[in-house]
Design goal:
Length: 274
């Protein structure tokens, strides 16, 4: 694995920063993470069960409830992008466990003494998380097609969905890395991860419109990145879907959140071994 120039240690040293080195290092980290996944793909299939159950069982039941306003689309179509976003969240939010495991095996020590940019170490892991999200997207599309949900299959909408999924996976995996750097143990991480997933999911527009929320919950929904990810997915993925905030605004919010998380994670990553 090649990491580039020895003097290039962090994103803070702008005079020595090389974009080519940064990209190469990120790809190298992402490639190593993907190799682990290809050796043991059972995690992807096990995580695919939950979104399928949500669509097949929960969706079928709640599609009979007439009190949920979904506009001119069916409830199954309304919740399908939300379940995809949920799948991305649940898959990425526990990514930090692998980082803690790498710390225990001494892999993190080796990475930190290398000349790699700290940001490249974080960004490379986000690349791997994005690949996992793409596989989840394929599964959801297949299930939606078999259930005859009104999804858009045009090339530009599919590409938009894939890019949004990669960005969402990067956000939540980086957030997970930050949590891992703070708690430093697998037991604590599991507890915090389980506490965070459900509030993030239910305090969003994944399975019901924002207008049904009480005012206090709406405040949390508007600062929840999952809300903006669902908004993009629902607009692009579903025939007749519309955006609440506008896709451009959603993308700007998510990119800003990700940039902030990368900066924080780059600062905290070296503390994982302390």
């Amino acid at each position: 694995m090649t990491f580039g120039k020895p003097e290039a240690r962090s994103l803070d040293s702008a005079d020595t920063f090389s974009l080519v080195d940064f990209i190469g290092q990120s790809i190298a980290i992402g490639e190593s993470e993907l190799k682990k996944l290809l050796r043991d793909p059972t995690e992807l299939f096990s995580r695919a069960v939950q979104p399928i159950l949500w669509l097949v069982i929960f969706g079928q039941v709640f599609s009979r409830v007439r009190g949920i306003p979904t506009g001119n689309i069916s409830y199954l179509a309304f919740m399908c992008p939300g379940i995809l976003a949920q799948s991305v969240l649940f898959s990425a939010i526990f990514y930090g466990i692998a980082v803690i495991w790498e710390r225990d095996l001494g892999i993190v020590h080796k990475l930190l003494v290398s000349p790699a940019y700290r940001g490249a170490l974080v960004f490379g892991k986000a690349i791997s998380a994005g690949f996992r999200g793409l596989i989840q997207t394929l599964i959801i599309y297949v299930v939606a097609f078999l259930m005859r949900i009104e999804i858009s299959l045009s090339l530009h909408t599919i590409l938009g969905v894939l890019l949004a999924v990669v960005l969402g996976s990067a956000i939540f995996s980086t957030f997970s890395l930050i949590i891992a750097c703070i708690v430093k143990t697998r037991e604590r991480f599991m507890g915090i991860g389980q506490v965070l997933t459900m509030p993030l999911f239910f305090a969003s527009n994944a399975i019901y419109p924002l207008e049904l929320m009480p005012r206090w919950l709406l405040v949390f929904a508007r600062i929840n990145p999952l809300t903006y990810l669902v908004d993009i997915l629902r607009t692009l993925m579903i025939q007749g879907g519309h955006s609440v905030y506008g896709i451009a605004f959603d993308v700007v919010v998510l990119v800003l959140i990700y940039a902030i998380l990368v900066i924080i994670a780059s600062k905290l990553y070296p503390t994982l071994i302390q």
